[in-house]
Every structure is written in C-alpha cells, then in structure tokens.
Amino acid sequence: MAIQGLQSALLGIKVAQRGLDLVAQNTANVSTPGYTRKILPQHSLFIDNQFSGVWVGETSRNVDGALLKDYWKQVSNASYYGTRATYMSRIEDLNGSPDSEISIAAEISTLNDRFIKLSSVPDSTVLQNDTLRQAQTVAETLNRLSESFTKLRGDVQTAMETTVEGINATLTELADINKSIVTEIYAGHSTADLEDYRDQLVNTLSGQMEITSYKQGDGTLVVQTRDGQLLADTEARLLSFTPTSITTTSAYPATAAGIYVGDPSTNIDLCAGNPGGKLGALIEMRDTTLPQQNAQIDEIAHKMALRFDAQGLRLFSDSSGNIPADAPPAYVGFAGTITVNPAVVADSSLIQQGTGAGGLNAGSNAVINNILAYTFGTTADAAGTAHDPFRTSGLGPDGTLTTGMTGTATLVEYARTIISRHAQETANTQGKETQETTYSELLLKRLQDSSCVNLDEEVANMIELQRNYAAAARVFQSMDQIFEELLNTVR
Length: 491
Known about the structure:
This protein is mostly helical. The chain is 59% helix and 8% strand. The chain has helices at residues 2-28, 65-95, 104-120, 125-186, 192-208, 277-310, 334-337, 342-346, 350-353, 366-375, 411-451, 455-490; strands at 38-39, 42-47, 50-56, 60-61, 211-215, 221-225, 230-232, 239-241, 259-261, 316-317, 339-340. A hairpin with a 4-residue loop joins β6 (221-225) and β7. α2 runs parallel beside α6 (277-310).
C-alpha cells in the first residue's frame, strides 16, 4: 500500500506539473492569432474495480468543429460581397451620378440643349460648332467608358491571377501540414499546434474561395470546392490559369481563360460556376458584370447613331463614316470606336442641312426640329411609330448577356437608367457586405468564446493544479514521516 501511495503521489505531481506547463503555454498565447486553448485529457484507470492510476493523453484542443465550419463559410460570403462591392464602387465612380456633369446621361442631355439653341438660329456657325463640340464630347465620353470598363476587366483578371497564386500557395502548405499531422499522430505526439496552424490556412483559403472539408481517421483534413472537387489532402491539387489579354470582344469561355482544378484536360473549370469567396466575385465581375456595362454603353451608342441617322443626320459613326449593322455582335465595342462622322467634322453646316442627298437650304431647321422631336423623343416619327427598342438580351460577343433593363426609353432616360440601376445595385451589394461581415464577426466571437484562452479560467485552473500539486507533495511528506518513525522503532 505504501508503494502504491507513493506511485499515486508521484503521478499526481507529474500530472499537475504538465497541467501547470499547459496553463503557462495558454496564458502566454492569449493574444496569439489563431491559437486555441489546449487541454490535457485524462481519466482514472481501474483494474478489478480497483483504482490503479491516471491515464494522461497528449495535449489536445478545445474547438467546436461545427461552429468552425460555419465560420469558414461565412468568411467566404463576406469576402465575396466585399470584393464585389469594391469593384461595383469603381464602376459607379466611372459612371458618375445621373446628373453629374461627366456622366453620359448629362452629356447627351447637354447635346439636346445644344440642338434646342441651334433650332432658333439654325444657320449660326457659332452654334453649329458648339453642337459639334458637344457631339464630340458625347462620343469621347462613350470612348472613355468603354476603355475604362475594358481596363477594369483586365485589372480584375490580374486580381484573379494573383488570387489563384495565393490559393495554390495555401493548398501546397495545407498538404504539407496534413502530412506532418499524420506523421505526428502515428508517432503518438500531440498535433494541437499543427491543427491550429492548419485552421488558419483553411481560414485564409475560405476568404479566397468557398470550401467544404472533412477529417479522415488518420488526421488528414480533406479540403474540397463547394461542389465537391478535391483540392487538398496530403497532396495539393493546384489550380491552373493562363489568362489572355482582355478586349471588348473577350468572352468566356471562347476567348477569356478558365480556371481549372488540376490539369486543364480534366475540364473541371471553376469559371463555369461560381466558386465563391474573392475568386467567385472576380470571375463574376470579369465574365458578367463588366461585360454587361460594356454591352449597355454599346447599346446606347448604337441606338443613338441610328436615331440621328433616321432623321437625316448621320452625326455619329465609326471612323469611316459607317454605322455597324443593327444586329449584335456587329456593334460589340462600338462605344469604344464611336466618333462624330468625319464628314460633319469637316463641315459643321451639315448639322443644319443633314447628311442625306439634297441638303436643306440655309436657315431651315427641319432636320434640327426632327432631331429634337424624334431622336431625343419617345417616338420615331410624327405618326407615333415606336423606336426600335434597346436590346435587353442576346448581347455581348457571344450573345449571352442580358441587362434586366427596359427596352423602351429615350436616349437620356436609358443613359440615366444605366447609371441609377448600377448605383442601386452597388448600394445593395454594400448593404449585403455589411450584413455578411457582421454575421462573420458574430461567429468569430462565438468561436473565440468557445475555443480561445480565457485568462480567468486559466487562473482558476492554475490554482486547482497548485492545490493538487501541494496535496501530492504532502503525501510524500507523510510517507517520509512514516518511514522515519519506522526506522526509529527498529533502532
């Protein structure tokens, strides 16, 4: 019994010492990002219903796995809307507000005003030149928007490339950590700190794209896309992306590169769906949102040229004086090439006379009045014939884009709708970003409360361990006293 008592006391001291070491480790890492509270699993051992000692395991973590997965999913959602809101705001900056002096709606409205002034003195060279200059400003504004949207698409694709590189680096590191964890488990060592680091990697990956995961019996965390495509276990399945230059005619999948899981020959293309997170938002911006913006300004450029031409004044055209055929994709990119008809630039009096055969006499305002009534108006002629509507579907280089806008509108109304609609979408996206970020922060708080170090708990645990240590030490003191008395008796 004495020997057993000494063994139990010695074991108690060892367990208490390990516990105190763990308290010190937890306390020292209270502010370390990603660190979770470590615990020392233990339970009593019995043989033939007799207490025979305490089993003490390797250091483990105190983590709510289900809550952690919920948090990772929310990180993806917040990153998706945050990325989308960033680029939507940049588009809004390019568009301007509907009434700002630099917006295409304001410039077309100003052109209307120039024609109103010219209608009073149609043979005024000064007013004709003023109208010409404003027409050039309208064309230049459309050129600028087309160029800016296309450049922004290129910026987005560059961000896609950077994001893919980051994903691949994270996947490679995840696979390496999985290998280390499997090795440590096989050797009977604790993997708690390695698992903390692995969670941080998955958290980083979740911001880049939405993932699903599950843990295998050997400790490997298998990471997949939201659609179940393997990304990493003890080997990384890297993404492949070979971008090509972006132009107004670039369209996925014909001429804009896809992002493949593993070798492109697998045909597992993330761009065919939406992988979520930052990458998902970038793909959507490159392949849908920005092409829609280009399609809308192509539409207004083309319809504006046609509506002027229908009233006898080919004011807008390409550099050769031609207007593309009224069938997409013939006029894809027209906003980027539209200009004032070179013939009108050479002779501004054509604004009054018209560009058709047999021009009007000097002083006539017939063409100008028709432009005011019908080019800028709601109908195409005095009979009330409707204008050909703005196309709302079948747009873009591959004819797959839709705008969701009404097709019946005046030039100014359509231009204003483009801007106001995008402003509303931007506001909605920003609101969603705030909502998703707030929920993400709430889940993080819950996760920290359940798994991170609490100093009050650690202090209480330390006091309890010190008591246990002291109790075990008193057993040694008592046994020492007993043996001393026994020896004295023998003497």
